[in-house]
Amino acid sequence: MRRLVLVVEDEVAIADAVADRLRAEGFDVRLAHDGPAAVAAAEADEPDLVVLDVMLPGFDGIEVCRRIQAHRPVPVLMVTARDDETDILVGLGVGADDYLTKPYSIRELAARVHALLRRVDRAAELAPDRAPGARLTLGEVEIDRGQRTVYRAGEEVHLTPIEFDLLVYLASRPRLVQPRDRLLTEIWGLGDFANTRTLDSHVKELRRKLGSELIRTVHGVGYAIR
Q: Rounded distance, CA 126 to CA 148, Å?
């Protein structure tokens, strides 16, 4: 079955170029050029993935992401015109799974779309085989791999799918330093398109949600669970 990708971009030339590339990669594509149209299209068409520009008329991509995730969880690749960490973290906080900054390679965007969908498929395949009681405990943080839920001091904490997979990967190897390139390959599957800013932003978001002391930075190498 062909996957449906919703591309939300107010610059028509860019939207058309992205759509052409994704169609060549085997996807069906719907286009939206403003915030309200994006939310309506997401609810009507139920896409498998959304490529979402932050700067949109009507209301911005942050609000679009918040609304579509409230309606139905869906992988979101957010696109921002500025390499601004605040924009990136806000986007991750409302449910975006990954991000690109403009200008970007359309080839890289297509690779990230494929990688995100592979992750979704892998999680769906593994879920039935996970023991419901398969839990990891890190101080006040408890991870239930079967239910894909995380609790901090008894309160459930919402993580995006990538945040959850990154946390489990690190937590399954406590105190072992994981190099950045290994994490980007194992979690994102990006290979040649690995970007350490992507990883660093997700680690920062995990620290915000679960405590600043949970993940240790090993400068010049990578990260480890304390």
A: 11
